[in-house]
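Long-time lurker, first post. I've been practising inverse folding by hand and with some scripts of my own, and I keep getting stuck on stretches where the structure tokens seem ambiguous. Below is the full token string for one chain I'm working on. Before anyone asks, I'm not after the true native sequence, just a reasonable design that respects the backbone. If someone could post their per-position residues I'd love to compare against what I wrote down in my notebook.
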């Protein structure tokens, strides 16, 4: 029986860079919660812990696309080691300052510099794209990496907490630091699968974030991240109210299992609908599947509702990432991916903060309103945005074709789009 996942790993080097990227992306979910656990144990200051973690999260959202832009211009092998070294040095400094009871402003500065952590989720997708561009294996590869993204989130946070609580306060952050060094180092050493630096188009200085389709996809991932962040907080609060705090792990596992299984199944299918249409269908499915949360009455029904809600999440994210490949010129692809990853991370932080405020102020069940509001925003974005993505993809294909033609001329220093021929 044909196994599409075995097919994508048939090329040399694919297993190696995917594994390295998995290790390198673990800090995405481990560092923030590791910072909170670190400061809560060393100083007993939860407000300071949350503030430092928030600075790191937002710095990562801002710096990530900048690092990715440099990668698109100069290559992964040249940029990633520098970015990872700067981030790791700043994070190690943060740990030392925390132990030394340094002033708060030094902690914020260190956390901000540490935010230049490379987005390995974007880097690995750029490699898959270079290998399987315009081939059916590409969607399977995107699906596989989306499942690994979720797996890293599921594993990373509890791992960081367990290490810090069970070993010593800095253990979670330092483990994330080691995984970052090993992951990024192993990734960049695999040079034969590194995407080539593509010739810049005439608008080489224009960031993908100025493109309407990327802005729409960024908003979509922001809304989806808000769903995840709110679900995490409300599930913990709901389980505590039911007198079963350990039940939160079951609930969140049900959500993750539903999403991961759907992502793996989606990657093995060959759907005939265009990517913009798929984005519309699965985006609406993500929104509608949150409605059962209104009717939950206990941990069991909440877990079932979470499983249903998770089924549409991974396919929507997979299609959103695949849409970047069809709307962004090839010389800006990594930056385009990174903007979406940043949106997801910021959304998770926003969702957790908003749900926490609602739960504390109004009550646990009202916290689901944050999930429903983000789900409604998800539906609105895909309904009104999928046509823009469809039209933009055609223009992007034309520009990429022109860039490829220009690259075939050795004397070309940059790709210049020719003026259309005027017919008399």
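-- Answer (accepted) --
I ran through it position by position. Result:
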């Amino acid at each position: 029986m044909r196994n599409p996942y075995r097919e994508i790993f048939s090329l040399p080097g694919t297993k190696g860079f995917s594994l390295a990227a998995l290790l390198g992306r673990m800090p995405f979910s481990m560092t923030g919660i590791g910072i909170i656990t670190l400061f809560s144990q060393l100083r007993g200051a939860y407000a300071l812990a949350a503030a430092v973690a928030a600075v790191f999260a937002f710095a990562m959202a801002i710096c990530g696309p900048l690092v990715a832009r440099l990668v698109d211009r100069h290559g992964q092998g040249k940029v990633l080691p520098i970015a990872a070294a700067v981030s790791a040095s700043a994070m190690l400094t943060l740990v030392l300052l925390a132990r030394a009871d340094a002033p708060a402003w030094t902690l914020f500065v260190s956390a901000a510099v540490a935010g230049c952590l490379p987005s390995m989720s974007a880097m690995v997708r750029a490699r898959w794209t270079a290998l399987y561009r315009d081939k059916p294996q590409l969607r399977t590869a995107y699906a596989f990496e989306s499942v690994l993204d979720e797996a890293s989130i599921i594993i990373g946070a509890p791992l960081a907490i367990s290490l810090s609580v069970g070993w010593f306060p800095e253990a979670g952050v330092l483990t994330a630091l080691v995984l970052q060094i090993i992951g990024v180092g192993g990734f960049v050493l695999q040079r034969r699968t590194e995407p080539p630096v593509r010739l810049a188009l005439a608008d080489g200085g224009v960031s993908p974030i100025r493109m309407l389709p990327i802005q729409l996809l960024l908003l979509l991932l922001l809304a989806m991240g808000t769903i995840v962040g709110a679900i995490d907080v409300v599930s913990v609060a709901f389980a505590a109210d039911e007198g079963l705090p350990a039940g939160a792990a079951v609930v969140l596992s049900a959500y993750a299992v539903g999403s991961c299984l759907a992502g793996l199944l989606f990657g093995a299918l060959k759907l005939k609908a265009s990517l913009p249409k798929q984005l519309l269908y699965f985006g609406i499915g993500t929104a509608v599947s949150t409605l059962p949360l209104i009717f939950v009455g206990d941990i069991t029904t909440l877990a079932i509702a979470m499983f249903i809600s998770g089924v549409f999440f991974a396919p929507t994210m997979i299609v959103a990432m695949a849409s970047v490949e069809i709307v962004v010129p090839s010389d800006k692809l990594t930056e385009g991916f990174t903007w979406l990853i940043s949106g997801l991370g910021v959304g998770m932080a926003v969702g957790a903060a908003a749900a926490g405020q609602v739960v504390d102020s109004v009550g646990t069940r009202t916290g689901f309103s944050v999930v429903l509001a983000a789900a409604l925003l998800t539906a609105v974005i895909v309904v009104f945005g999928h046509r823009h993505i469809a039209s933009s993809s055609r223009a992007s294909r034309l520009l990429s074709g022109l860039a490829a033609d220009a690259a075939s001329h050795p004397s070309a220093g940059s790709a210049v789009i020719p003026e259309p021929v005027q017919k008399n």
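A couple of notes from the structure itself: The CA atoms of residues 234 and 357 lie 11 Å apart. The chain has two domains: 15-142+157-190, 206-408. Happy to go over any region you disagree with.
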